[in-house]
Fold:
Amino acid sequence: MNKYFSTIAAFLYKEIKTTYYYKFHLVIKFLFSLAQLVVFYYFCSLISKEYFKFLFFGLLFSKIFSYTTTVLIETIKQEQFSQTIYNIFSLPYYELTVLMLNFFAKTILFFFDLTIFVFCSILFFSIKINITHIIFLIIFTIYTIIIFLWYTITVCSLTFLIKKFEHFIYLLNSLIDILSGVYFPTTVLPKILQNISCLLPTTYILSFLRETINLKANYKLLVYPTICGMIFLLLSILLFNFILKKILKTGKLTTY
Amino acid sequence: MTNHCIIVSSLTKNFGRIKVFHNADVTIEENTITALSGKNSSGKTTFLKLLSGFLLPCNGKIFVYNHDITQNRVFVKKVVSLVLNTEYGFYPQLTLKENLMFFCKIYNKPFTELYPFIDKLNLNNFLDIPFSISSSGIKTRLWLLSSLIKNPKIILIDELTKSVDYETKQIVYELIKELKTKFGCTILFVSHDINEITSLCDHWIKIEDHKFVVIK
Structure:
């Protein structure tokens, strides 16, 4: 167990050093997030204050979902590009274990990112969040990350196989945001899109988040995403191993 | 009695229609320095990648310390270090020291244990330089140094001295000899330099017509 912790610590060390090197980029990222909130706040104020609260939790969920689903693609892309993939895949673990340990390290930093986002909203956009909400949000974030691990593993397997696959995922994630009710309630969607929305686990998790914040927690909403998450996780690991064997024969593992 | 740490049997490797190895056999003795040579695109780097688990054979078996690499790649990763001749391979924005610290943390090795090797490779004055702006010679030495962090039993070196000056070459040769005599490592290095091969190696293998030919 100790060796896993030391590997996570090493990845965390590398991430902190890299983030420090690109500190200007970090500031830009923060300002962009803030600008996005300002624009949404302005448009929401034209409708109602309650709508901004609705949208804020949608954006928060979208941030967690987008991080979870794209972080491994970004990691692989960077490691392949700088050829550090030779060094990190030389570590004495299975490739998926290396990626997951890297993922955990990045997630620790993501929590800082999320904290800044939430505190900015409290300070500048009068979002009311108490300590119970914060504890709930931490648990909710961990749950969402675990439930969508299958998605990130699947996407990362396909990234190995199909180069530039990430562009498709960014598009797909934007559609999922719309269909899950990040920006507006799913009830305003056309009937056919509402039916698709009902199939997406993200719709249920986002509803759960909003209902819990409004003190109407409905745990039944989590049954479908949890079952999907567990089944797909097993399938995604099988897919990863299958694709890994394939690309180890073609030599595509280390090339971007 | 001779101990073979690498046994390759009936190895076949193709990339689509391109044939690299066809029913090739070779063995590599433990605690020796073996040179591997061959024409361009004959499969030298491919062979190193096969031995380090970055590629899988199409047919045939490769055993590293009696472990089949297709069945037990994690074992291979524990005992084999791959040293590539590339301008990349480390985090470009991190300094040499930070890159080395990253691997030291992974293998739970104190950085101070690297100092004798840092001295030997004359890297003391370059530790605080970002990898991206380091010269080829420094990058070469960093590759070699980082490969030692996991205490490997087998070190695979791909044309390491191709882009380094005479002095650095001598330093690298000394270290390679020391790795064999002091640390009991087995070294397989790719080279085209006949002088390098004859002065440094115990054995010499050539790749010809998709097969291994033992020269020495």
Notes: The CA atoms of residues 159 and 243 of chain A lie 10 Å apart. The mean pLDDT of chain A is 91. Residues 49-81 of chain A form the longest helix (33 residues). Chain A is about 80% helix and 0% strand.
